[in-house]
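Co-fold these.
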Amino acid sequence: MSGDARRWLVDAVGRALAVRARVRQVRRFVADQPPAPSPAPPDGSRVRVGVVQLEAQLHDSALSYAEQMHAAVTTLARDGAQLVVFPEDTGSYPLFGLLPGLARLVGRGKPDEAGAAVESGEAPVLALMRVMTPTVRRVYQAVFAGLAKRMGIHILAGSTLAMDREGRVYKEAHLYDPSGQLILAQRKTHLFPTEVAWGMTPGDEIAVAHTPLACIAAPVCMDHTFWEPVRIAWLQGAEIIIDPAADPNRFSWGLQARGVWSRVQECPAYGVHAMMVGTLLGVTFGGRSGVYAPLVLTPRGDGVVAEASVADVPDLFCVDLDLDALRPLRQERLARLRPDLYGRYLPSLYDGASPRALQESER
Amino acid sequence: MDASRVAVALMRPSWCTTADVLEQVGLLAHRAADVGARLLVLSGGLGWWPVGYTLGLSEGAADPYPALARAASDAASPGEPWGDVGSRLLSGLVEIAAQRRLGLVAGGIPLPAEGGLGDACVVLSPQGALAGLQWQTHLSVAQSRLGLVAGDAIAPVDLGWCQVGCLPQDDLLFPEVARILCLQGAQVLVHPGTATADGRGALMGRLWRDVQGNQVYGLEAGYVGEGNDGAAVLGPCELTADGSGVLACVGGPEPAIAVADLPWERWRQVVADYPIHAYRNSALYQRYFPALYEDSRR
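Predicted complex below.
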């Protein structure tokens, strides 16, 4: 197939998907929902956070997708949540079911064929993402901007896909405020090996949102394996650091604690870890969502403020965060940083530094 | 490199004489040498125990710096109490290392540094030579009140069979230190700690984080306590059957050691299977560091 023909086919599939998604119907569905009782107004001292441990489902209609998200948001909003947090991929792969025939291909264990069907090349998954991105993004924005406005709360809606003019595909987490405005779009800056293999592109910026609730950041999943992006967010003022995650492994506390749980010990802040669970497109996701804090701020001294009642299955929970208790810790740690010292080594040591540890170990 | 046997110490802190400190170290070193360990990491604060003894302190050895800071502020000449205690302790440690043919790491040794007195973590070779020294770079408020000066350099120490990166005291709280050490080649991070055995969560909140974040080994010593996690040998989670990243640990009310073999071949495989350093985003870090540190203080 020639390049022109391929582009034509991709455009045609994209247009067909947009029609199939029926975004207007989604907007109407969201607008028709009864509002939840108004959450407590922000007072700068306490924040009530709701966490969605989301069941991964492939939706063949945008409306069924909106219904699933609405159910979670409503439950948490009725429990007083001022901020609701969804996991990574909430606004991407579940909506790939809009592509006719995808579910059948996945059922046969051949998800790559879906990409190959729309564009032959070496990265069929990336081709699939390029086709799907405009549509899933529109549905995602309609659902979460609408729900945030309808319920009068902030929603960190996990992540969706983003694509630039050159066709590079990113993962991007969105934070909506109670007026439905998008106030933070955080691209994933450290890709999981599989995402690198698929040809996705990492983001190059860490942003924070100064909201009436708190200063919020949302590096995505693998970003939390590294202290650097979280330090960057924290130095910009982040007090609530969200880790929207989708981990293709069954729950293991040790592996999971390498993420935002560890990071909030280094950067005193609250960490909110929302996990995708279940099987989607042939991949099984697992984990136990949690809200974390520096050890001294937690009742058992283990860094855990609250957790999902069980791992690897869907759950919802709410918890209050005490920002007044956090702030002295933050100031104390901030005052003890040694930029004069770090500047002598970082970032120059990163240049070309594959860790020497492996080389040294060969001696 | 074959598996290397290492040990970490669980010590009982007390305001005591230098001889008493060395006696406790000697007993633990004997045990470590007996089981074939090539390196023993001792608890932190050792050098300050005799200082507290000289000052006549009776309580507070389990959290030595605040107690010492209070006492020093009351003393007529605060520079006097520690005298040459650090040097004398170091001499004793050198003797034990050579006698047992055992590498030793000891933290919390007050030694003369550029600009005053520093808190040193020393690394001794099995021949009893001073292989390296790491000054603590991030002082606590209590340490600053004691008049200590912070170190200005971070570098691993070459023990021949591995590169050791020392994280004395509160340096552990700042992930920059471990990263700088590992980017310079440290394969084993050591923390001569002063924490008591206060639960798995607390253990994971200390050196464990840096071990996982840099995919290296970690040796953390501590103080006696009620729990089981006072001192531990750590590695990437994938090295352990239960996924905990804890290769060995010890706790309880009596001085003890925990011993483990560091399986280098398996470690290499773990890193090869999931090479997190290959997924760093250096361009991102270049964009923000070091300017953002300064900006955050304005």
